[in-house]
Design goal:
The protein has a single domain (2-227), classed as 2-enoyl-CoA Hydratase, Chain A, domain 1, CATH 3.90.226.10. The chain is built from 11 helices and 10 strands. The chain has helices at 25-40, 64-68, 73-96, 112-118, 136-139, 145-154, 158-165, 173-178, 189-206, 210-220, 222-227; strands spanning 2-7, 10-15, 47-52, 57-59, 101-105, 108-110, 122-126, 132-133, 170-171, 184-186. The strands form 2 sheets. The protein has a 6-stranded mixed beta sheet with strand order 1-2-3-5-7-10, with helices on both faces. Strands 4-6-8-9 form a 4-stranded mixed beta sheet. α1 (25-40) runs parallel beside α3 (73-96). The mean pLDDT is 95. This is Delta(3)-Delta(2)-enoyl-CoA isomerase.
């Protein structure tokens, strides 16, 4: 459901789900297992780049079709709740990964797919196709607490945050750059991934200590880390 490739100090994680890369239990489990393995293999200079297969979707969020295929409304609700709970450790793993993280969004990133992208340190997006979109208000679905915490600390403008979460706006690449949600927008999938690789190579040259990097990240997003169950670690300074 996802693959991991090593190129020097760069780790390329590729989501390989269905045609929309929807987050079902199998894909969520695969992501968590891959990130756990990656965390244990981190060395100074390691960098994660996450992208997805296809040219239309980075991820269209939770697999609501699978949830709704349950035998009863209560069972469907339970399936959705289970997916929400199981994605939380994935978000926590990304927010505590001991290396810089870069998302190369190859298409639409919707709902939980948007969350997955914004949990990365840097977000690159294509400008020719694809939107960022939080449809919960339109679907009548409540926002999980960790979604609200991550978005609240990653999107600093209250107006932009309001429009994303309460307005259900669809945001294209160049507009997302202007709003400060993503770092850069590129002409195609290929150029987006290439830019992510170049940025990753620059970070890899710095040979940052992963544990220190992770702890500094946690200090930047204390509320999100609190909700995700991440606690600071005491590290000994080396001079």
């Amino acid at each position: 459901m996802c693959s991991l490739e090593k190129r020097g100090n760069l780790w390329i994680l590729t989501i390989t789900g269905d045609d929309q890369n929807r987050l079902n239990p199998n894909l969520i489990s695969s992501l968590l297992s891959t990130l756990t393995t990656l965390s244990s293999q981190s060395t100074p200079g390691s960098v994660l780049i996450t992208t997805a297969t296809g040219t239309r979707f980075f991820s269209n969020g939770f697999d609501l079709l699978w949830a709704r295929s349950a035998t009863s409304p209560s069972a469907a609700t339970e399936r959705l709740h289970s997916m929400v709970q199981s994605l939380k450790p994935v978000a926590a793993a990304l927010m505590s990964l001991p290396m810089p993280t870069i998302a190369a969004i190859n298409g639409h990133a919707s709902a939980a797919g948007f969350l997955l992208a914004i949990c990365h340190d840097y977000v690159l997006m294509r400008s020719d196709q694809g939107v960022l979109y939080m449809p919960e208000v339109n679907l009548g679905l409540p926002l999980p607490d960790y979604f609200a915490a991550v978005f609240g600390e990653k999107i600093k403008s209250p107006v932009v945050l309001r429009d994303v979460l309460l307005g259900g706006v669809k945001i294209k690449g160049k507009e997302a750059v202007k709003l400060g949600i993503v770092d850069s927008a590129h002409d195609s999938v290929e150029s987006t991934v290439e830019a992510a690789l170049r940025l990753g190579e620059e970070f890899a040259k710095r040979k940052w200590a992963g544990e220190v990097y992770a702890e500094i990240r946690k200090s930047l997003y204390p509320q999100a880390c609190l909700v995700l169950g991440l606690t600071p670690k005491s590290l000994v300074s080396k001079i």
